[in-house]
Amino acid sequence: MAYKRIFAIVLDSVGIGEAPDAANFDDVGADTLGHVGSFYKGNLAIPNLAKLGLSNIRPDRPIEGVPAAEHALGAFGKMQEVSAGKDSMDGHWEMMGLPVRHPLSTFPNGFPEELVHKLEEFSGRKVIVNKPYSGTDVIHDYGEQQMKTGDLIVYTSGDSVLQIAAHEDIISVDELYKICEYARTLVNGPEWTIGRIIARPYVGPDKDHFTRTANRHDFSLEPTGETDMDRLKAAGLDVIGIGKINDIFSGHGITKGYHNESNMDGMDHVDEVMASDFHGFCFTNLVDFDAMYGHRRNPEGFGQALMDFDQRLQKVLANLKDDDLLMLTADHGNDPGYKGTDHTREFVPLLAYSPSMKHADQSLGIRNTFADMGATILDNFDVAGNGEGTSFLNDVTNA
């Protein structure tokens, strides 16, 4: 019997150890969950993730404070990324059967003068910074100048992103969005192909009190082909996106979307959708792990966010129906105990559970691509895919 509803929750940036190709990204030794566990010295209290089999994924190196389950409640494994990058867009697209196999444009020395000039000409504002920078550091260092001059803080990271920060009292959110929408038109190839333009509004009276707001918006590259979400929607199924899913896929393949203010707001939406009667796929991204703690290299906050999520997970597990399947994973790593401030190339965890599952306490092994998740979802709903990924439906079946 097929599942009527599948819920996939992406814990944004919650990696589980360096990937085999980590050296290509200068990420050897990265281990998001491992380093968070070590920071908490055995006091990382995530019992629901533990009983699903989180530490069973790597029994030789269990996460400190997260014991391997004697009999895991669900199936467990990890997935390896094949996409050329380690950004959220790459990870999510790959999960939905569209790996990004050709590297997108990155700008370790800042954006070209021609691109900067076009932004200034369109906006009537000067561009400042124009180099890789931590998002919180850049508003601390340049936010007061931006307030005085009305300039645009333009910066990037190790990923294929162009980010524009502005104080909401100086440049309205609507104006910032319009500038970002224009920037999106400039970088869709062939000369420059950038994965995401990100509007980064902030508020606060001075550099010691600036905070970024929930009005962040990602203007992603349009998917370069059909995704598994498009296929599900075309088959008449419900496809619900929670959090930045709508942004990452530019609205494609989604029948209903919810914007998140925070992880907890996102879980409120998950609870709301679980209480509704739908038939299909609910895809959720919880971004606080990444935006609030990973990039800021804050293992304490990262661990607390994991514990907060784990408490909410208890309600999700209790509310799952026999014909529901839950999958938990991540889109990349962002090790708060590692050097720098960028994403880290890591395996991502894969946990699957249904109250009716007949194959609990089973290893799903190492999946060769994130696309195995999408292939499994399509297999469940008997929808044809494009050959990307291998279904593990038989390992998580309720039949």
Automatic annotation (TrEMBL):
InterPro entries: Alkaline_phosphatase_core_sf, DeoB, Metalloenzyme, Phosphopentomutase_DeoB_cap_sf. Pfam families: Metalloenzyme. GO terms for biological process: 2-deoxyribose 1-phosphate catabolic process; 5-phosphoribose 1-diphosphate biosynthetic process; metabolic compound salvage; nucleotide metabolic process. Pathway: Carbohydrate degradation; 2-deoxy-D-ribose 1-phosphate degradation; D-glyceraldehyde 3-phosphate and acetaldehyde from 2-deoxy-alpha-D-ribose 1-phosphate: step 1/2. Its EC number is 5.4.2.7. Mn(2+) 1 binds at D12, D331, H332. Its main location: cytoplasm. GO terms for molecular function: magnesium ion binding; manganese ion binding; phosphopentomutase activity. Residues 4-382 form the Metalloenzyme domain. CDD domains: PPM. Mn(2+) 2 binds at D290, H295, H343. Binds 2 manganese ions. Isomerase that catalyzes the conversion of deoxy-ribose 1-phosphate (dRib-1-P) and ribose 1-phosphate (Rib-1-P) to deoxy-ribose 5-phosphate (dRib-5-P) and ribose 5-phosphate (Rib-5-P), respectively. PANTHER family: PHOSPHOPENTOMUTASE (PTHR21110). Belongs to the phosphopentomutase family. This is Phosphopentomutase. The lineage of its organism: Bacteria, Bacillati, Bacillota, Bacilli, Lactobacillales. The gene is deoB.
